[in-house]
Amino acid sequence: MRWRKLGRLFAPDGRWAWMQSHAAVPFAEHAGGDLFTVYFSARDAAQRSHTGRLTLELGSMPRVLDVDPQPVLSPGALGCFDDSGAMLSWIVKAGQQRRFYYIGWNRGVTVPFRNSVGLAIAQDDKPPVRYAEGPILDRSASEPHFVASVCVLPDGERWRLWYLSCVGWDIINGAPRHRYHIKYAESADGIVFDRRGVVALDFAGPSEYAISRPSVLRGSDRWRMWYSYRGTSYRIGYAESDDGRAWRRQDGLAGIDVSADGWDSEMIEYPFVFLHRGQHFMLYNGNDYGRTGFGLAVLDT
Questions:
Q1: Which class for 35: exposed (0-12), middle (13-18), buried (19 or more C-beta within 10 A)?
Q2: Residue 297 has pLDDT above 90, yes or no
Q3: For the domain that residue 139 is a member of, what is the CATH number?
Q4: What is the pTM of this model?
């Protein structure tokens, strides 16, 4: 694989209070023709996450047509799992519903934060409404730390889930640092998931401590996943699977890396891969976890 970068598409300019910085974890939803709605996570002055959206025209010269001045999802009520942020992770269309799976943030005391996964549902083209005030995925007896970014794909009578699972915190240079990888689970309804501790992607070695944002596509002969992994700084990885459960990491085949200079020269992360008119496209973030915005790449064949 070789991804050809098409440039940075968007970075916030601070014009709205809820979008002072960042455009992290981009997700594209087809809106007809060459138009896509791209969702992303912005931050306000208090560093709380809000989900925004813009319209992207994916023609010969990709361009942003407009940016919605209002957020799609904002932090929840005080004390709820998402009172410090609501960051979209994945959207699934199910009948007349569109299900918004999102990461809820809580600030911590002994550790900097704790994440859970919430669900909001939109009927037809109406704005999404929270399914519940609490999360549908949270820490548990067997996963006591936190869960976060998800990829959710309906597959016949079951729903497949790949999700970030924190396995612990370490004290590094006097401060806590998380360790998380990617696990796999299934569901009959896309809401209640049977989590059995199946590890889909594990750490490549002791220097690696974060694997996040799985983006999965099913081909005719295999499952393919793009994701972020971090040791010193984030890079984009690639893996393949015969059944969607057991994965073979092949990061050397990812075909995309940091640039020599500019907005994505220090790190590259949070990929979302999608198909349009027979081509593979990738939305991704660059330096500082989305503070420099997001860009687009196309897979050369």
A1: middle
A2: yes
A3: 2.115.10.20
A4: 0.97
